[in-house]
Amino acid sequence: MTALTALASAAFGSTVYLTTLSTVTWLNRLAPRAKATGLVVTGMVLCAVIGIVAFASQSVALGFIVGAGLTPPVHRWIMQRRKHVAGP
Predict the structure, then answer these.
(1) For the chain, what is the HEC assignment?
(2) What is the pLDDT of residues 2-56, one digit of tens each?
(3) What pTM does this model have?
(4) Is 78's pLDDT higher than 70?
(5) Per-position b or e across 16-42, b if 16+ CB within 10 A of its CB
(6) Which of 21, 40, 63, 86 could bridge to 10 as Cys pair (CB 3.0-4.6 Å)?
(7) How far, in Å, CA of 61 to CA of 25, rounded?
(8) Are the C-beta atoms of 13 and 67 separated by less than 8 Å?
(9) Distance between CA atoms of 67 and 19, rounded to whole angstroms?
């Protein structure tokens, strides 16, 4: 596993996480029927992406998991820090 491959796949995992978070946040504002359909489609797309990543190679899958695993706590930290800075 090269460092560049791991870094690229970690960035991809992070991007998938943030895209999914934005999609689900947007779907929560829709009508219940559209929300349910959107969540099903989002889940299917995520399963396909994870399947493709797992099929690619072990190093790509490990980098993807690391990127997706590290992004949520970092994202929460950034969002909390913005609230403290923006407040009076």
Answers:
(1) CCHHHHHHHHHHHHHHHHHHHHHHHHHCCCCHHHHHHHHHHHHHHHHHHHHHHHHHCHHHHHHHHHHHHHHHHHHHHHHHHHHHHHCC
(2) 777 777 788 888 888 888 889 999 999 999 999 999 999 998 998 888 888 777 7
(3) 0.70
(4) yes
(5) bbeebeebeeebeeeeeeeeeebeeee
(6) 63
(7) 26
(8) yes
(9) 13
